[in-house]
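User: structure tokens for this one?
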Amino acid sequence: MRSRTLIASVSRFMLGSLAAIGVVVFGGFFALRSIAVGEAERQTREQVRVQSRLVELAGLSDGVLREQPAALSRLDRLVRSEILSPSVVRVKLWSRDGQILYSDERRLIGRRYGLTHDEMRLFGSGGADAELSDLAKPENRFERAERKLLEAHTPIRTPGGAPVLFEIYRRFESVDASASQLLGALAPPLLLAFAVLLVFQAPLAWSMARRLQRGHDEREQLLANAIAASTQERERIAADLHDGVVQDLAGVAFGLAPVADEAARSGADDVAQAVRRAIERLRQGVRGLRSLLVEIDPPSLASTGLEPALDDLLSPLEAAGIATSLEVDGRATAASANDPLIYRVAREALRNVQAHADATSVRLEVSGADHGTRSLVVRDDGRGFAPDDRARRGEEGHMGLHLLEALAEQAGGRLAVRSEPGHGTSVELEVPSK
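Assistant:
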């Protein structure tokens, strides 16, 4: 069982490491893609500058402004032979007022769409700009089949000095190809490094998990030893009290009874009354000590049964004026190996009720279930407490219920404490009825 737990823990650790590697790989792809997009935009800006200079020097004339066929044909020959390529799919030439003066798609020539603010700014500032194309714009309806394009603009001048805006459209697939190439170059050494890391991590994770498991087992063993030592010490103290002080006090009370009777017969009523008061005080002390002995070392549950033992636990609360009730259903009357744990939890809960709850009533229920469990519920109507109060009491050394929680887990059960200020407290234990 412990081996399966260790394997499961190490497997979760390794799966987490693999998930982290996956995140790094996919994140690296998108990071490289972003770098590739930035690099593509830079290259496209450089490309539009070079190609615009070629158009300005070798193909552009003032006749393009007036849509003269000869001027357009001359520019078209230059564009198709020197600019259009598998990566550059469209060329446009714009006037300042948003008219397309030239395009290799002739149906666009003469159309007017208007320029954006950034495009208009280039007429004054010069330079070049590149960005992802918005193919939803009307002027880009003939490029939509390409799905994604980069467009770049730069201003040039006709021989007569008229400013126009030169624009090219570049396919985006080359950007994805660049990112894939970068990732393909970096992936093998990265994956190898991760594989080496996992190879070294696996034995370390296994060793750490085993140490943690051993530490957990040692803590459980220490807890069990502490409980056993506490039980033995309680038995020793109870035996010493029963065979020593309790017997002595009972003997003294028994021996004083004739003294009281003799004083009464001789007429010393004051002496007889004083002796009888002393005898009653001694008997009360003996009863108190015997109640304490029951708490320190309860009678054998195997011989008395769980219900009588729990009923004895309620007696001190009844003597203190707290209304009590006990209910044990028929399925919980048979002896169980976990009855001592049920008794301990009930004793600790009732002790807390008497010491801290300021309750007027307490109810104790023990029940069995068809699925092989036995449950205990101790519920009072006292002042209750907040979760922080319990944590603070634990820090102060009040560890009774905390230790019992660990014992319940060790027995395959669970112990829950529920409380709210002003609404009482409920202690609920569920353990196998084995």
